[in-house]
Each structure stands twice: as structure tokens, then as C-alpha cells.
Specification:
Layout lengths: L22 E2 L1 H9 L4 E4 L3 H6 L6 E2 L3 E5 L2 E4 L3 H8 L6 E4 L4 H12 L5 E4 L2 H11 L5
Parallel strand pairs: 1-7, 2-3, 2-6, 6-7
Antiparallel strand pairs: 4-5
Length: 137
């Protein structure tokens, strides 16, 4: 899976468009990322990404701001992802806890990305999975 760095924050969104998203759990995501065939797209805001992320992850924020009064979606999200990945590339989409990445995965699938999967539980689930892995000496 690569190494994990630190921790991050933020979540929110509307589930209506994300009901049929393909998802993977942390264990499966680790295996897919370790294979080298899947890429990791982190959809948290930049400041959260900088606090910690999967090694090799690319960051395209799904939201530009998250406030108590509402979330401002990144209007260029799909275009920015399309500049980094082809629609057939295998991509695992993650955020902090899996809420925002589920919405982002649904948006990407609706835009024609054919091999995107949401990381259930987000980056936090990867951190928990990494702590449960036996360390090699």
C-alpha cells in the first residue's frame, strides 16, 4: 500500500447520488495499492492532505471549503481528476472517513470513470489497518 503519513480531517455531503458506488475496505485497498496497479486519489482539502496521506497519493479536493453553514463543492473536480487519470485507470478514492469519497466516486463514475472505488472508512480505516499489521524486522 505504501506508507501512511500522519492524519487528516473533514467530511460531509449528500448520499443521494452515491448509493450504488463500488467500495473496498481498508484490507482490500492495501492489497490493491500494494499490487502497483491501483492509484490512490485523496479528495480531502489541501491542508488536510498535507497533514498526512498515503505515499504516492494525488490530491484533488472534492470540497473547497467545509463550514458549519455548508460545503462548497469544487466545480472543477472532475476536470482536475481527468487531467491526472484516464477514465479506465484503476483508482481508489479516499477522504478522512469515507463520506466525501463516496460522493466523489459517484461523481467520477457518472462522468465516465469506469474503474473507481470508494475506500470505506477513508484514510482513518487505513491508519487502523496499518496499526494491526505485524511489523517486519
Amino acid at each position: 500500500m505504501g506508507s501512511l503519513r500522519g492524519a487528516g480531517g473533514g467530511s460531509g455531503g449528500d448520499y443521494s447520488e452515491a448509493e450504488r458506488v463500488r467500495s473496498v475496505d481498508a484490507e482490500e485497498a492495501c492489497a490493491l495499492l500494494s499490487s502497483g496497479r491501483h492509484k490512490y486519489l485523496d479528495v480531502r482539502m489541501w491542508e488536510d492532505f498535507e497533514k498526512g496521506h498515503v505515499a504516492g497519493a494525488r490530491n484533488v479536493p472534492y470540497y473547497l471549503s467545509v463550514t458549519p453553514s455548508g460545503n462548497e463543492k469544487n466545480p472543477q473536480f472532475v476536470d482536475q481528476v481527468a487531467a491526472l487519470y484516464a477514465t479506465h485507470d484503476p483508482i481508489i478514492v479516499g477522504c478522512r472517513s469515507g463520506v466525501r469519497s463516496k460522493l466523489a466516486t459517484a461523481n467520477l463514475a457518472a462522468a465516465g470513470f469506469k474503474n473507481v472505488r470508494n475506500l470505506e472508512g477513508g484514510y482513518l480505516s487505513l491508519l487502523r489497518a496499518a496499526k494491526q499489521q505485524p511489523h517486519e524486522n
